[in-house]
Amino acid sequence: MGSLHDTVDITGRVLVSGSAEGEVLFTDTALSFWGGVDAVTGEIIDRHHPLSGERLTGRVLALPTSRGSCTGSGVILELILNGQGPAAIVLEHSEAIITLGVIVAEEVFGRSIPVIAVGGQAFAGLKTAGRIRISNAFADVGSNIALTDKDQAILAGERGEAAAVAMRMVLRMAALAGAAELIDITRAHIDGCIYTGPGGLAFAEKLRDLGGRVVVPTTLNAISVDHRRWLVQGVPEALGKPAAAVADAYVAMGAQPTFTCAPYLLDDRPARDEQIVWAESNAVVYANSVLGARTMKYPDYLDIAIALTGRAPRAGCHLPEERAPRLRVTVPPLANADDSLWPLIGYLIGTVSPDAIPLVEGLSEYEPDSDALKAFGAAFATTSAAPMIHIAGVTPEACEPETFAALDLQTIALTADDLLRAWHELNGADPGAVQLVSLGNPHFSATEMAALAALCHGRTRHAHVPLVVTCGRAEMAKAEASGAVAALLAFGVTLVNDTCWCMVTEPIIPVDALTIMTNSGKYAHYGPGLTGRTMRFGSLAACVEAAVAGEDRGDLPAWLG
Predict the structure, then answer these.
(1) pLDDT value at position 6?
(2) Beta-carbon neighbour count of residue 322 at 10 Å?
(3) pLDDT digits (tens, 9 = 90+) for 58-94
(4) Quick one: DSSP state of residue 223?
(5) Which of 26, 6, 52 is nearest to 127 (CA)?
(6) 265: helix, coil or strand?
(7) Strands, DSSP E only, in 239-337?
(8) Are 225 and 501 in contact (CB under 8 A)?
């Protein structure tokens, strides 16, 4: 391909049009922009990533694909609008999350950078390139998608300008996904209500002001603050006001103020084979895998575009053939495993299946419940770009032994050493004092609050170690009715609604907290970059012990040791 001093001209599949030239910033490891890149400075803050500490500003970022959070589209939008973004993005293969953020910048704000996918061989050659030049690249904007009369009417503005803008975005992403047509969807879950910066707020308010109204039942993800209590919690107005304003803009467009990152816990949840549009990475994995509903891993902002039109690309996990596993992963026998197994194994499987839907064997004997599958899926979605998983004998599409028997799948056999390595990756801090115990990423369920209350019963919380739980309003109401909330408050637990740990900042995180203990594989991964703190990871019981003792001794669970 050339030496580190050469300028390499590249071509490939153009996802967003444009021309650019710049120094190459190359990685062969996928990256989540949310939790992985600072939207203000352009620094890569994922402390588990090989490029940690690098700045992508003005450089041509070459990476295989995205992973993790659907909110990555919001981060790239902010970077482009504040001038801290890359000059261009070169991908190994097409992806939706980063690309959609660039498309929003172009469609709504008239700002853009080229995005191009070059394929495996050409991408590998970029490792030795010094500079990359992209010249006059032109993207397919969806002109070949078959449209119904209703689609044409929306595109022509008969349902208002907001719906027309939304339809243009849907068509561009349909072209990227290789869809020939659109399908109707029955419900939506919006992740774009998270406050990533002024660009995301301007986008939501523009759609609102253009008369945007959702046309299907639409729920809202956790937002960046507790909408009702951020002021009394001491959250600065510089965050609280715009974060609440983003949420208000989506509510004004007809979305329900559910404010939870676990919409599958709501009483009205999707049925098997129901065609939906959900964003929020853990919710997508749960909907596809556990509920058997059908959604792609939709990026932020495309979620509201589809909710405004009721139309989605006929592609990806909406299609039965795209839901088949591409990889088999076997888990070794683990005697007396506790609840820390599920986030740990989900995290690990995501690392060995970074973009392929896996079939996981060896877990059915542990009979995972909804809470276990929630923790598993959230951690998996942190390290993998895949939109779902199959667990043999557990998830609905993998319950019959013969379902995938005919597939010739590559097999990865995990070992106890692999699990131990993942455990140490999630435990970035040395054993010792902790200054905060963080629970509820994703949002705690009422059953998890009951389990926590039982573990806290008769114990005394350490005076200098807050234990904070984030949860949705609906699940908290159930826990109040059962008496669990009263028991938690008696122990000294702080309950926070509407927001989640991926958005929580000071002062809910104490200024002097250096180490945070959590039972979430997702937060153990993202926490160091998002908070600047080090993390300890363990079971729910281990978290309670840390809240009582003021320290985590670092004991391995018996099933792992």
Answers:
(1) 78
(2) 15
(3) 999 999 999 888 889 999 999 999 999 999 999 999 9
(4) B
(5) 26
(6) helix
(7) 277-278, 311-313, 327-330
(8) no
**Rounded to 5 degrees, what are φ and ψ at 231?**
-65, -45
Helix (H, G, I), strand (E, B), or coil: what is residue 271? coil
Alpha helices in 483-539 (DSSP H): 484-491, 521-531
Query: Measured between alpha carbons, how far is 381 from 403 in angstroms, rounded to an integer?
Result: 24
DSSP state of 6: -
Q: How far is CA 264 from CA 74, 96, 115, 297, 371, in A?
A: 23, 23, 34, 15, 11
Torsion from C-alpha of 505, 509, 512, 513, nearest 10 degrees: -120
Strand order in the sheet with 327-330: 390-391, 358-361, 327-330, 410-413
State pLDDT tens for residues 247-263.
999 999 999 999 999 99
Q: Are 481 and 233 in contact (CB under 8 A)?
A: no
What three-state secondary structure class fits 251? helix
- How many residues belong to the chain? 561
Residue 546 has pLDDT above 80, yes or no: yes
Instruction: Give me the mean pLDDT over the 197-201 stretch.
Output: 95
CATH class of 427-552: alpha beta
- Domain parsing of the chain, residue ranges: 7-137, 149-320, 324-424, 427-552
Return d(Cα 459, Cα 452) in angstroms, integer. Answer: 12
- Distance from C-alpha of 114 to C-alpha of 137, rounded to nearest angstrom: 7
pLDDT digits (tens, 9 = 90+) for 153-186: 999 999 999 999 999 999 999 999 999 999 999 9
- CB atoms under 10 Å from CB of 238, counted, come to 8
Identify the active-site residue in 17, 32, 66, 69: 69
Neighbours of 140 (CB within 10 A): 16
CATH T-level topology, domain 149-320: Aconitase; domain 3 (3.30.499)
CATH architecture of 7-137: 3-Layer(bba) Sandwich (3.50)
Topology agreement, domain 7-137 and domain 149-320:
no
Q: Identify whether 135 is a catalytic site residue.
A: no
Segment 485-508, tens digit of pLDDT: 999 999 999 999 999 999 999 999
pLDDT of residue 255: 98
